[in-house]
Amino acid sequence: MKKLTASLALWAGITAVAQAAEPITLGLNYPRTGPYKEEGLAQMRGALLAIDELNERGGVLGRPLRLSSRDTASRPEKAVRNVDRLAAEGAAMLFGGSSSAVAIAASKRAAERGLLYFGTLTYSNDTTGKDGHRHMFRECNNAWMSARALGQYLNKELPNKDYFYVTADYTWGHTTESSLRQTTGSEALGQHPGVKVPFPGARMADYHNALTQAAASKAQILVLVLFGEDLVRAMRIAQDLGLTKRMQIVAPNLTQHMVEQAGPGLMQGVLGTEPWTWRVPALEKSERGQAFVEQFSQRYQMYPSSSAASAYSIVQQWADAAERTKSLDSQALIKALEGHSYSLLKDQQQWRAFDHQNLQTVYVVQVKPRAEVMKDPFKQDYFAIVDRLDASQAAPSLAEWQAERKAAGQPPTLQ
């Protein structure tokens, strides 16, 4: 009997150790194909770096992390199916984006599964606005924050100009155009016209038609509310039509990969915003951020983009919440994240409690001349930071957020 008891105790101990060592799966729902695939690849790289760092320190709650990924192709219906597959694998948390429509649809499905969903690149106001819910946390800034930063700069440096908007016809495009029109005083459609182009699946003819209308206008500022490869294609047509020389081009949400795809010569002088660039840690005196830039650069032989930084930060913040709560339970993690302030890759950030929007500084950037870019070892020193706006000035207030929710028929608190 004593031998049996000892054997059972030994078996229980071995089982406990085996269970403790069982990997925790994190699910990345990202675009491996489609117009935003470069931003998706950057998310994968940032996530893997974070997971490797955490595993070197013993994992989370004594268990190693593993990454499982699925391709959304920037299509909401595919992203929703991916959530089901990742949940079936036992994923403890899901994250990803690059299309706000994808992030919104996938996060709602994740909520039905009782899983947290962190948005990486999802700039639509709707993500944490009218479509926000308790299981969604957005790491990047929203369209309002970009628009207020850009509006501050444009109103100061290029006042009283006529605008022309070319906009991707989905939630990110709509809320970004609307926000920038308000902050720049360009709401009057007669004076500041615009054209919508399909998303996804816009053809070259769609861009050519829109930009031909821009060329025929009196606008001095051309706002391309486009992202990824869509922006690159539009920029090539704009150059062919001579618009890059006669207009100030604004791309509200720029990324390192867009400039890389188009080339700094074509993108020279374009204005936009970024929540993070590899130059930001030095600007903000963030030692952790500078270490991230160095580690990422050594590993991948390139600088990390805002896409990579977002995915890296999400994994680190989820892990931090899990360690603080000693739990993987979504409800416990939600409570731990709400209102939590931290400094990781830049200055202070906070997961705002009432809408789960990440509050952070937004930077207005302008693409440097090609000659300057080419002096850099990686030839990726694309952005000059020309202005900044901290979260207290950029983010919409509780009253503004509740008004937006009310207008959409949504409750005044996250459900």
From TrEMBL:
InterPro entries: BCAA_transport (IPR051010), Leu-bd (IPR028081), Peripla_BP_I (IPR028082). Residues 1-20 form the signal peptide. Keywords: Signal. Transmembrane segments: none annotated. The keyword Nucleus does not apply. Residues 23-368 form the Leucine-binding protein domain. The keyword Transmembrane helix does not apply. It comes from the Bacteria. Belongs to the leucine-binding protein family. This is ABC transporter substrate-binding protein. It comes from Pseudomonas xionganensis.
